Amino acid sequence: MQVGTLEEYPKESAAMAAADSLRLTINTQSEQNRNRKTTFNVLWEHYVREELSLKELSTQDAYIQYTKNWVLPRWGSSLLRDVKTVDVERWLRAVPRANGTRAKIKCVMSAVFSHGVRWELCDHNPISSGMQVGAGGRRGPSVGVRVSSKRQKEPIVLTPSQVAAGMALLEMRDQLLVFMDGSLGIRRGELGALRWMDCDFESDSFNICHSYYWRQGGHLKATKSIASEKPLPMHPALKLALQEWKAQSHYNRPEDFIFPSHVHKGKKPLDLAAVLQRKIQPAFRRLGISGVGWHTFRHSVGTMLAEMGEHQLTIRDYLRHANLSVTNKYLQATATSKRRAQNKLVEAILPSGILGQEWVRHSVQ
Length: 365
What we know:
Layout: H1 12-26, H2 31-34, H3 40-50, H4 57-75, H5 85-94, H6 99-118, H7 160-168, H8 172-184, H9 188-193, E1 199-200, E2 205-206, E3 210-213, E4 219-222, E5 232-233, H10 236-248, H11 272-285, H12 294-307, H13 312-319, H14 324-330, H15 335-349, H16 357-363
């Protein structure tokens, strides 16, 4: 039986791990298999073969990157029975990355161990529970690897005037990119995937049908969730700008990307990561704003809508979130709105006659 090709497994150790994972699949019901000395590397190869290929391409890519860059160098040669909850927790806390990255590494390890439990290749998942199979499903705050996913700093949020000032420093294509993302708040992949067929100029709406994944040659894929497929309105100013851009574009058939890559002759969308780095970030740095990313505009849209008094449900549906708990993470109160709120409170709790009227008048201005 052939395990794979030399290109797939250039090193003998990788080929041996793949062979072991295939052997595990064939003999998974064997009692001898349960007692064998299985390493995390073997379990990972088994997971890749049996489960990872069923996930979205972007998820596959992320899992592979996290595992090969972080997990395998530390735990690849470890026997599954030797991977302990506290040891993993201490290691993760020392990983020199943001909390969010550590939490994702933990999730990947947990997914691999859960796979091992389902296939009866190991007795328990030390990452999510640390308890053996059949222990009654008891879980609590003291069980499993604890790693904070709390943000270490708040995301950048732009004001409408800052978005406008940034646009003024850009050329037409990049102005339109910022204008669209700053008014629609769509994800980078959705912006790249937009084609002319997704712009309904008759009903003045956008149909968000796909997302684009630039790695591994580039792929159109489904949107993040069913909620993400909801249409968005098209303001007359957006409509006019798009029609002007379409008239100038060499790629204006219904199936063409709105922002095509001329390097790839329109067969792929523009590399938005490169545009951000070379054009958009330098423009905002000239305004004294560093660290702007595509997701900055999405966070900014949520906050701007909240500042304008829009209902949370409206903001949820505009950002196309599946639930309000996700939407709340995008909303921030600006200094101006907090000052307005404080003024109302102070005016409410300072009845006349208790303090001097001059002091009261100045304190609430």
